[in-house]
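Why do we bother with holo predictions? Because pocket geometry can differ from the apo form. Keep that in mind while you read this record for magnesium ion.
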Amino acid sequence: MPRAATHQKPAAKESKTSRNGAGEKPEKGVEKPESLDRISIEVAKAEYDKRRCAQLASIKKIDKQLLRKMLYQMVLGRHFEEKAAEVYRMGKIGGFCHLYIGQEAIGVGTIMALEQDDMVITSYRDHVQAMVKGISPEAVMAELFGKAGGCVGGKGGSMHMFSKEFQFYGGDGIVGGQIGLGTGLAYAAKYKGSGQVVLCFFGEAAVNQGIFHESLNMAQLWGLPCVYICENNQYGMGTSLERAMSMRNIARKGDAYGVANEFVDGMDVMAVRESTLRAIDRARKDSVPTLLEVRSYRYMGHSMSDPGNYRTREEIAEYQKRDPIVLFKNCLKESEHFDDQDFETIEREAHEAVDRAVKFAEESPFPEISELLTNVYA
Ligand SMILES: Cc1ncc(C[n+]2csc(CCOP(=O)(O)OP(=O)(O)O)c2C)c(N)n1
Ligand SMILES: [Mg+2]
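The structure, written out:
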C-alpha cells in the first residue's frame, strides 16, 4: 500500500464503540476496530462471525416479504452495475460512470427503512440508490445511455439521476455539494411541517470539506430531520482514508456539533437497517439530525477510467470474501426462511429486469435537438 510521507504523530487513540452525541449509548451498535488502517485477516474473520450471529437475530424479527425485497434490491443493484460496466466498455455509455458494487447493503439497508414520501440526496455514485428509492431500472439505464427515456430525459447521465416523483434529489458531481442541499431539504421539511425525513449520502472524502462541518452545526442548532450517511468505502479516488484524514473516527466528528452518531458495519444490511431506523425515529419524533458512519468497500475503480494502481488485488479479494450479498444469503438460509430455489428465482428476476432495462435504453431515442437548451442553467 502506498503510504503518505508524513512525520505527523499518529491520530489519538479512538473510542472503541459507536457514540451518540446526545450522551446516550445506542441500543445496539457494532464495535469499531481500534485501528482504522487495513484490518488484518484474523480481525476481519472475527468481525464476520460476529456479524453473522447478529444478522441472524435481526432477520428473525422481520417478515419474509420484506427480507425478500431487500435481497432482490441488493442482487438487482449488483447485476445492474455489472451490466453498466459491460455496456460502458462497449461505448454505449459516455462520460463518467461510478459504480456501487460492494456497497449495496448501504443503499438497501437505509433507503428501505424510509417512508415513501421521505427524501434522498446523494453523490455521483447514485444508480443503485435511485432504483431502491423507486426509479425504474429502465429509466436509470436509459439515463446512462443518454436517451430520452431516462429519468431526466437523457441530459443528466450517470451522475445526475433525479426524480421529484420519488423524492430523489440527485446525483451531485461536486464532492460534498449535496450535504448543503440535503440540509436545505430538511430545513424545508421542517418549515413546511411535512413530517418528511431526509437521508443525505456522501463519501468519507467529503467529510474533509467545510460544507460537512457547517451543515452538521446548522442541522443540530436548528433541529433538522436529516440523517447524514457517510459511506466510508476507505478511498477518495486513489487516496486512502489514512493519507487524507487526521482523525479517522468519522462518526465521532458528530460530537463536535452535539449530533447523535453511530458507526455501522456496511457489509451487514440488517445492522445498517437498524441504525437507520433509530436515526429516522430521532429525526421524525424529535426533529434532530444523526450522523452515521457506514464502513464499506468499493470493489471497482473510483470510476470506469480508474487504473487502480493505488491498491492491490489481494486487498480487494479480502473484502470480496466478506461480500454483503453472500453474508445476507447465508444468514437467510440459516434462518430457514429461504432456500437455494428462492435464491435462483431472485437471481433470475434480477437478470431479467436488467435485460429489460438495457432493451428499453437501446430502443429509446436520443433527446430531440429542440431539447438542447431546455432546463439548462448556466
Ligand atoms: C469539490 C470537488 N473536489 C474534487 C472533486 C474531484 N473528485 C471527484 S470524486 C472525488 C473523491 C470523493 O471520494 P468520496 O467522497 O470518498 O466518495 P466515493 O467516490 O468514495 O464514493 C474527488 C476528489 C470534485 N468532484 N468536487
Ligand atoms: Mg470514498
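Residues 123, 125, 173-175, 202-206, 233, 235-237, 302 surround thiamine diphosphate (ligand 1) (CB under 6 Å).
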